[in-house]
Amino acid sequence: MITAQSEVSTNNPDLRKAMYSVYDGKCFYTGRTIPFDDIHIDHIIPKARGGKDCVENYVLCCGYINCKKNDKSDSLFVERISL
Description:
This protein starts with 12 loop residues before the first helix and ends with a helix. It has a two-stranded antiparallel ribbon. It has helices at residues 13-22, 63-69, 74-80, and strands at residues 39-43, 58-62. It contains three helices and two strands; from the N terminus they run αββαα. The chain is an alpha+beta fold.
């Protein structure tokens, strides 16, 4: 059983399906629909800043946004996002 604190890789196929379903296939940051094959699972608190590989630290997003966010924290990134 996976809990919010369970360590789970972002490449886990069950996690990817569950995240897609929970977020209704939409990017957390933009609200845009993402084709399943293009989803990224982003760390809210980046691993480079001590974030963990667990469900409570993940959001669904598109690749473009995930690459722009890089190692910024969620709150810093949301303030600066410009599409």
